[in-house]
Amino acid sequence: MFKIGEALVGSGNEVAHVDLMIGEKEGVVGEAFANGLTQLSKGHTPLLSVIRPNLPAKPYTLVVPKVTVAGMEDVEKIFGPAQAAVAKAIADSVEEEVIPPAKLDEWVVIVSVFIHPEAVDYRKIYQYNYGATKLALKRALTDYPNADKIRYDKDRAVHPIMGFKVSRLPDWNTPYLQIALDVPDIDRVKKVISQVPKSDKIILEAGTPLIKRYGVQVIKEIREVTKSDFVIADLKTLDVGQVEVDLSYDEGADAVVASGLAAPEVLDKFIYEAHRLGIYAIVDTMNVEDPVALVGELKDMPDILILHRCVDAEGRQEQRWHLIGELKKKNPKLMVAVAGGIDPHTAPEAIKQGADIIIVGRSITQSRDVEGSVRQFLDFMGGDIDLKRVHVE
């Protein structure tokens, strides 16, 4: 048996973060246990957990400091409240039969503890590490988290140290509102962004005119005013797809757009590079005669296909929303976006036809009330991701 658990408990400098392994003495955990006791590292010397001197907890447990122990003050925190907390958590877990008593002499445990150099409250160090060790142990023995839990939380969670969310576009949260920032004036764009209400439904697009004026560096400027929003670089790439993907990626784009009029070889390289770097590949089918056939010609499917009626031909071209169903039937994982003269009156019909993303430009960016205009669309797109949910784990 080889089980792994993790837990974060508490706050402030005394916060406890525990990584834990548990398994048989005769297995890989036992081997790691023996190596830890015999192959010492300066500043990270492991020690057995003891309830008091001469009374170790069982299963035998090795406590490993994550942060370098630099002086006697650090030593006292490790050999005092941290060591005692881990030992008591192990002993109580045996009493509560989280650890089967029959396994007392068959298993060993390794607990890696985080003790902040500026932690001063021994009571809290003990309390937090005790709770974290018990929780990590229980999680290890119950194989927490399962796949459903990870899938549910991965696009909702914000890492507390990073401080912002790297947005993705989960299909269970559709439809989305993509705001096309086509105004070739970065100051105006920043002003528009500042008026856009915060929502998990919002996508920001660095439009083609904006990129043509400022280059892909404009994405970095957009990132200065919004760290968490999903940002698309609308390159409308026609050649050297790999190069343009790399340029946008380096500036912080979450997705890139190629023109469907590009040669299939260009689109294949474009999609490959985007997926290699972990960002979304989007193909815009403006003026493409048969979008369904185009997808079938590609080696790999893009993440998003745009059915786009160009601005200058709005009076002549019809929307092609009737293709959404066929595209999705043949490519179930493909997200379909629609663009071209969409307003709050026409957007609901596009969603009814199956559109995952509604792309809107002038109705929002040229509005005197940007926030109000955005909310007109959001009102029929459903609520945000767990708006009132607080992560307490």
Describe this structure in words.
By secondary structure, the protein is an alpha/beta fold. It folds into two domains: 2-144, 2-Layer Sandwich (Ribosomal Protein S5, domain 2), CATH 3.30.230; 171-378, TIM Barrel (Alpha-Beta Barrel), CATH 3.20.20. Helices cover 37% and strands 20% of the residues. The protein is built from 14 helices and 15 strands. The strands form three sheets. It has an eight-stranded parallel barrel, surrounded by six helices. Strands 1-2-7-6-3 form a five-stranded mixed beta sheet, with helices on both faces. A two-stranded antiparallel ribbon has the order 4-5. Helix 2 crosses helix 3 (122-141), helix 5 (186-195) runs parallel beside helix 7 and helix 8 packs parallel to helix 9 (264-277). It is elongated.
CATH C-level label of the largest domain: Alpha Beta
Give the overall form.
Answer: elongated
Structural class: alpha/beta
What spatial order of strands do you see in the largest sheet? Answer: 8-9-10-11-12-13-14-15
The SSE order reads EEHEEEEHEHHEHEHHEHEHEHEHEHEHH
The low-pLDDT segments are: none
Percent of residues in helices = 25-40%
Secondary-structure arrangement, i.e. CATH architecture of the largest domain: Alpha-Beta Barrel
